[in-house]
Amino acid sequence: MEAKQKLRRFTRRTEFYIFLVLVVMGIVIQSMSGGQLFEVNSIVDIARAMTIMGMFALMNLMVVISGGFDLSFPTLASLAYSAATTICLTQGWAQESAWIAFLLSGAIGLVLGMVNGFIISRFKLNTMIVTLGTQTLFLGISMGLLQLSEITSTLPLGIRYFGEASLFEVYSSTGMRSTMPVAFVFFIVLAVIVWFVLKYTMFGRALYAIGGNEISAERAGFNVKKTKFWLYAIVGLVAGLIGMLRVAMVRQAIPKGLNGWDLEVIPAVILGGASIYGGEGSVFGTIVAVTLITVISNSLLLIGIDSYWQDFFNGLVILAGVTISAVQAKRRSI
Asked: Can you spell out the DSSP letters for 29-78?
C-alpha cells in the first residue's frame, strides 16, 4: 500500500514526465539516426558531454531548493581556475600531479563563495540581485584587476595528464574513438553526496525548510543565516573544483570560458522539477533534465538537423519545463 502511494506521488511529479520525454525522444532519435544513438561510443560521448554541466546543476539544485538563484557561479569558477592555473604556471607547480591546482582552485572558490554567502545571509538581500552583482565583480577582478590571460599550450603538464586520463575507451562501427573521462566518476560521487545531504542530513532539511518558508524555518529552529552562508561557501568551493576539472578536460584555462552557463544550468535544474519558488527538487530530476538537454544537443546532427537548431530545441524544452513547474507550484499554493 505504501509502495503504491509512493509510486502515485512520483508519477505526479515533473521529473517523471521529463523522464518519459527522455525515453520517447531517445527512441525517436534512435530510429531516425539508423541506430546510432544507442551505440556505445554515442552513450560515452553523451556521458562525457553532460559531466561538467551536470555537476554545476547539482550544486545549483541545492541553491534553488533553498529558494535562491546563483548567477555568479560561472564567473566564480572561471576566476578560481584561471587564477589557480596562472599561479601553478608561474610557480612551476602541477607539473607531475594536478592536486595542487585543484586545491588552489577550490580554496579560491571557497573564498569567493563566502563573499556571496556573507552578503546574502548578513543583509538578507535577494539572491538573484546579489549574485548578479558578484558575477560582474568576479569578472572585473579576473579581466580588469588581475588581467588573467588564456592558457592553452602552456598548461601545466600535471593538469594536462589528468585531463587525458580515462576510465576506458570504445570504438564505433565506423572506427571512431570515444573515451570516458575520469571526471565522470567525480560526477557520480557528487550526485551521491548531494542526494545523501538532501535526504538524510539536517543541512538538507534546512534547505528544503528555508525554501518552503524562511520565516517558518527560523521558527522551527533552523539557523537560516548560518545555513545560507555555508550553502554559498560550499557551492563556491565545489564550483572551483568543477572549473578545474573542465580545464583538465578541454586542456585550456580561459577567463571567460564559462560565461553564459547560468542561462543553461539553472533552467535545466528547473526543468528537472525544482520549484522556482524553492522547497522542492531532486537529484534524479536534475540528472534526467541534464541528460535530456545533452541528448538533444548531441543528437541533432545524427538525424540530419542543422546544429543551429540546437538552441531552439533546448529553449523549447526548458521553457516547457519551467512553465510546468510554475503552474504546479501555483496550484499547490491555492
From this structure: HHHHTTS-TTSHHHHHHHHHHHHHHHHHHHHHHHHHHTT-----HHHHHH
Distance CA 259, CA 135 (A): 10
The set of cell numbers assigned to 232 is 554559498
Residue 186: Cβ within 10 Å count: 16
d(CA 248, CA 4): 46
- Within a 10 A sphere around the Cβ of 218, how many other Cβ atoms? 14
Q: Which residue has the cell 552513450?
A: 43
Amino acid at 332: R
Rounded to an integer, what distance in angstroms lies between the CA atom of residue 80 and that of residue 148?
A: 11
Half-sphere exposure (CA, 13 Å, Cβ side) for 206?
16
Q: Are 252 and 150 in contact (CB under 8 A)?
A: yes
C-alpha cell at 21: 520525454
Per-residue pLDDT in tens (0 to 9) along the chain, 334 residues: 567 777 777 677 778 888 888 898 888 888 887 777 788 888 999 999 999 999 999 999 999 999 999 999 999 999 999 999 999 999 999 999 999 999 999 999 999 999 999 999 999 899 999 999 999 999 999 999 999 999 998 999 999 999 999 999 988 777 778 899 999 999 999 999 999 999 999 999 999 999 999 999 999 999 999 999 999 999 999 999 999 999 999 999 999 999 999 988 998 999 898 988 899 999 999 999 999 989 888 877 667 676 667 777 777 777 776 776 666 666 666 5
How far does Cα 174 stand from its chain's mean position?
A: 32
Give 178's strand partners.
170
- Cβ(289)–Cβ(271) below 8 Å: yes
Q: How far apart are CA 112 and CA 130, in angstroms?
A: 13
Distance of CA 331 to the CA centre of its chain: 28
Q: Does residue 313 contact residue 300 with C-beta atoms inside 8 Å? A: yes
CA 70 vs. chain centroid, Å, equals: 11
Domain spans, the chain: 36-259
